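Q: Give me the 3D complex with 6-O-phosphono-beta-D-glucopyranose.
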Amino acid sequence: MNYKNRKDFPENFLWGASTSAYQVEGAVLEDGKSPSIIDMYEHPDDVADFQIASDHYHRYKEDIALFAQMGLKAYRFSIAWTRILPEGTGKVNEAGVAFYKNVIRECRKYQIEPIVTMYHFDLPYCLEKEGGWNRRETIDAFVEYGKNLFELYGKDVVYWLTINEQNTMILHPGAIGLPKGGKVPGKKELYQQNHHMMLAQAKVMKLFHEMVPGGKIGPALNLTAMYPATCAPEDAIAAHNWEVLRCWNFADVPVYGWYHPLAVSYLEDRGIMPEVLSEDYETLKDARPDFIAMNYYSTATIGASKGDGQDVAARAGDQQIMLGENGVYRPAENPNVEKSQYGWVIDPVGFRYTLRKVYERYHLPILVTENGIGASDQLEDGKVHDEYRIDFLKKHLYQMRLAITDGVEMIGYCPWAALDLVSTHQGYQKRYGFIYVDRDEFDLKDMKRILKDSFFWYQKTIAENGKNI
Ligand code: BG6
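A: Here is the predicted complex, encoded as structure tokens.
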């Protein structure tokens, strides 16, 4: 729809940026922290691991001062469970507690709203060794971790995110990484883990509302709208299949307390329905988020499965993510969208479309917790001219402003990433930040922070509350 006038971004809009603990902090085993599963994953030999990352653990003051200079109103970061409870449960590690107190205090000093992710792919390894999310005991461990966090930081943090991209962890576990010699678990096991995470999330949201009056909590999922490859009705059904299985089934549970009926039919038919106790439904129904957080990078285009052995293919530029499923859907090319250097679809209009769908479905305000473009930025004469990033963000914000005009209620926008960090499996070759971190994969150099062109563009955009968009 075209409008004569576009609505402005709301006055108190949270212009932010995001990171996650294991991708920026480094100090993997420092000050009492224990390893998480992600620290123990096998790592490609030719890219940086997480040992040092961007050394944010030691440089958070300098980094947050730069975020303030950029004008950020919000900083989304994750707390490493393994810094707070190195044994997964039980004894609290005071040094870890102090680190995040300091990060939060530093944010508040500059009137930056801290947005905390409780869990960003980094289950304590000691819990994984005991069976991880396959066990119901891990639900209790997550609740105990939540209770500690709400006691420690509940007074200072309003916005909380439970679990980052649960759908990626379940649908594409290999994309996050695997333990040495480890195998991707089977689907039945993954959906059982998913159910336990759903219960853990519901219990934590309920506890949060009891312990942190006035606070707001929500899930952070990777959400994306699907296009049918053609106007053939079979392609439309296939696009709907995958949209439900990939997105709505993960967001319906925290909001409505039910598994989507199409997903249940799929799981039962394939013999991979998790064990669900009758009291579990009460647990799921007993909790509700205050908002939906969503990570958006791309849309997908979907054709009907042909069952000819060629439905499944690796995502372009990414051998770890297999798309397509016999009898469900097959991925298709979309000639109407561009792609990034890493083969990721760039679709700003799809962003508006996804925002509309999410709002229409859940009637909850939306916080965008990731959006951005990974690129091999080049440092030349002390500058980084990342005009492609400015172009990407500008186009997405333009479409978000249209979504706001459409009536979608937006809380804020936290692109990925506040500063350069380790990409999940492309190290520092693929960068996302507004701030360049001067290190290579293996040569740590001086880790100097260098402001990219996109830093100054975002600074201006925030100062004008997006009027330039
Ligand atoms: C999101 C994750 O899925 O995508 C981030 O939440 C991740 O942790 C981001 O870094 C970009 O993916 P990648 O593989 O390019 O690092």
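A quick observation: Residues 187-211 form the longest helix (25 residues).
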